[in-house]
Amino acid sequence: QQPVQSPQAVILREGxxxxxxxxSSKALYSVHWYRQKHGEAPVFLMILLKGGEQKGHDKIxxxxxxxxxxxxxxxxxxxxxxxGTYFCGTEIRPEYGNKLVFGAGTILRVKS
Amino acid sequence: xxxxxxxxxxxxxxxxxxxxLKCEQHMGxxxxxxxxxxxxxxxxxxxxxxxxxxxxxESVPSRFSPECPNSSLLNxxxxxxxxxDSALYLCAxxxxxxxxxxxxxxxxxxxxxx
Lengths: 112, 114
Prior knowledge:
The structure holds two protein chains of two kinds.
Chain A: E1 4-6, E2 9-13, E3 18-23, E4 30-36, E5 43-48, E6 54-57, E7 60-65, E8 70-75, E9 84-91, E10 101-102, E11 106-111
Parallel strand pairs in A: 2-11
Antiparallel strand pairs in A: 1-3, 3-8, 4-5, 4-9, 6-7, 7-8, 9-10, 9-11
Chain B: E1 4-7, E2 10-13, E3 18-25, E4 31-37, E5 44-50, E6 53-57, E7 64-70, E8 73-79, E9 87-94, E10 103-105, E11 109-113
Parallel strand pairs in B: 2-11
Antiparallel strand pairs in B: 1-3, 3-8, 4-5, 4-9, 5-6, 7-8, 9-10, 9-11
């Protein structure tokens, strides 16, 4: 039940935009997005709970299409600090408890 | 205080050793987790504790034994590990007991089994 992320890796220049996708074969209760830099802990970016929900934080936003069982993370006007590995984490149903399962990750590298 | 603290940061142990990893949080979170992360892989869920009771065990080998002595502490006891158990072990906590809330991660313990 691991969600599928795409692309596996992306290289950007500062100021460029990127989209990272996360899809599941099962109906989703929530989608979490985290960024992890090398040697560090994953850092929470945002969580989406409702179908069709969209959230934004600075120049990073995300959408959740419950019907398609998909979420996308949008990074606009990328900065060097955006570099890292982005993971989506999915929860299938709340009655399963806090079973957050992560996708394989997308490596993002922003160059100057 | 929004920190999850893990000790030790690094651990090298032999296959016949017994050691413990510790995790502490003071955010009042009632759900705590252990994840295992191999290099270039995502965190992989091992155990979930809800209200100090084990709620999820992802078929983890018995050489890993979790313990939640109180609402702030989570331990992972290690015994007779194999070299393939070498990994980054991450502890996390969250407020919600039924999902849908942010998980805060500790910095992890980098374990090497020799």
